[in-house]
Design a protein that fits this description.
Elements: H1 2-19, E1 21-24, E2 28-34, E3 37-42, E4 45-48, E5 54-61, E6 64-75, E7 81-92, H2 95-101, H3 105-121, H4 126-131, H5 133-148, E8 153-165, H6 167-239, H7 241-250, H8 252-264, H9 278-292
Antiparallel strand pairs: 1-4, 2-3, 2-5, 6-7, 7-8
Keywords: Membrane, Transmembrane, Transmembrane helix
Membrane topology: Single-pass membrane protein
Family: Belongs to the band 7/mec-2 family.
């Protein structure tokens, strides 16, 4: 009989002994209460909990965790409705403070983040919500870290994941962007046409300048050639007396043509020249041609 009674007692003692042994993994924390009062926090490794007298009341991770914040309706400073959702990275530093300070830690943090997001969005215009997102993230992180410090929580990072204006605002923004693109395209087209006209005008001016320079150079070369020819002719006439007689014969045709020109000259013309002098004849012919030109 004593053996039968001792067997259940031994089994019970074995079960109590097994249940009193607690193994805590790294990065984990367990809170132990003794007779309903907080006693200690179990460290990673093997720990003993007194049966009946002590009880593990909370088991939490001390690693960094991610809190997904659902989309939240907000109103900006310029009265535009937007929908904002975020993600919060946080870490439990003091397990006991978090367990006894707030009833539902995660729900409390979600409500706190939503409240802070609404407050920050109300301080900004719609355009600022897109351009100052990084600054808003830093402000939210600082404010949330201060607010959750009494709970033994450390907020390490806050990211506004998405900001969506209302459908009407999105349509207005799309129309504005379309108008801006069309405006930029019109400006680029007008600038291209202006540059094309400027280039064409510059090309015509350069062509005219080159043509004028070519004509001037041609006239210079022609005048120089005529001067050189007259100089060589004069030298030949002075060096060879028979050259003068040959010149008179060559110029006979010009003399006859000059006579015909004088006959048709307006108002009449008188040419005083010595037909025996080729030089005088050349001078007279040149003067008559210049006067008619």
């Amino acid at each position: 009989m004593e053996a039968l009674l001792s067997l259940p007692a031994l089994v019970l003692m074995a079960l109590l002994g097994v249940s009193s042994v607690k193994v805590t993994s790294g990065g984990q924390s367990r809170l132990v209460e003794r007779l309903g009062k907080y006693d200690r926090q179990l460290q990673p490794g093997l720990s003993l909990v007194l049966p009946v007298l002590e009880k593990v009341v909370s088991h939490e991770s001390l690693k960094e965790r991610v809190l997904d914040i659902p989309p939240q309706q907000c109103i900006t400073r310029d009265n535009v409705g937007i929908e904002v959702d975020a993600v919060v990275y946080w870490q439990l530093l003091e397990h006991a403070r978090a367990y006894y300070a707030v009833d539902n830690l995660q729900a409390a943090m979600v409500n706190l983040v939503l409240t802070q997001i609404r407050a920050e969005m109300g301080k900004l215009d719609l355009d600022q919500t897109f351009t100052t997102r990084q600054e808003v993230n830093e402000v939210l992180m600082k404010e949330l870290d201060q607010a959750t410090d009494p709970w033994g929580v450390k907020v390490t990072r806050v990211e506004l994941r998405d900001i969506q204006p209302s459908r009407g605002v999105q349509q207005a923004m799309e129309q504005q962007m379309t108008a801006e693109r069309e405006k930029r395209a019109a400006i680029l087209r007008s600038e291209g046409e202006r540059d094309s006209q400027v280039n064409a005008a510059r090309g015509r001016a350069e062509a005219l300048l080159l043509d004028a320079e070519a004509q001037a150079k041609q006239q210079t070369l022609l005048a120089q050639a005529r001067a050189d020819a007259a100089s060589r002719l004069a030298e030949a006439m002075q060096a060879n007396p028979q050259a003068a007689e040959a010149m008179r014969l060559l110029l006979a045709g010009d003399w006859m043509a000059m006579g015909e020109q004088m006959a048709h000259a307006p108002g009449g013309s008188v040419l005083m020249v010595d037909p025996q002098s080729p030089a005088a004849l050349l001078t007279a012919l040149r003067g008559l041609q210049q006067g008619q030109g």
